[in-house]
């Protein structure tokens, strides 16, 4: 309970929770902006839920965070209550619009922003087919943004790129732009087969486009400790990825799945619920790892 935000009463009905939240105990700033791509070509494993909730938790910890919604489904925008009707990542990728021009502030957070996935993004991969250096568009767009912010005396602590459930050009752009990859693993059959394929793609990107990118973080999502299967998969991940795994499983929890329909993260929808507490602990673990790496 110590992780619950200071100005949220447990009696407050979740839907009514509004206003800016900060934790009592701030999280450590990384030495440089950490860019995470949240990827898994398997659909519905908790990519978006993890991206937005970890981002929100870090922002509540006093860090400056940007979420780039690179999935044409726009689920990250929905969860953050961000408008998708204007210019968005399509213009950034296809028309070279600076990311700074499309960024929106996320209501209720002091330092959380989102670069929205607009409807047009669904056509971006096709529009990019004949572009020169089409895999590195996002990388240079983010580099420009970071430079622009630095000259304004601002610096992002974290950027999270939420990917669609495929290994197409959007995900390749994300892997080329990031240094770290966060893979949510749902504790189900075939979960690890999907991770192997992702790692193969990652190796190709490392060789051809971005030698720095690496799988730094694995998260167990929608974990149901009562099932044997979930525990078996968790143990397998512990064995194969002992360094990458953040061993704080995110429980399957109804508040987590309800939050997006109220245009909220679970961190604001019900900060005292088990899912929110787990994401807060994961965010803190990520922030602390970032400092250890220095
Ligand atoms: N811990 C959880 N407890 C309950 N429901 C969850 C949890 N995490 C995610 N969900 C729900 O599971 C569904 C899939 O989650 P999410 O959208 O985050 O997956 P995704 O990997 O981003 O999906 P896609 O591949 O379509 O982008 C959503 O309806 C979400 O609300
Ligand atoms: Mg998603």
Describe the structure.
This protein is an alpha/beta fold and about 290 residues long. The chain has a single domain, classed as Rossmann fold (3-Layer(aba) Sandwich), CATH 3.40.50.300. The protein has eleven helices and eight strands. α1 packs across α11 and α5 packs across α6. The chain is globular and about 50 Å long. The N terminus is likely disordered. Adenosine-5'-triphosphate binds next to α1 and α9.
Count of structural domains: 1
Helix segment tally:
11
Task: Supply the CATH superfamily name.
Answer: P-loop containing nucleotide triphosphate hydrolases
Strand order of the largest sheet: 3-4-2-5-1-6-7-8
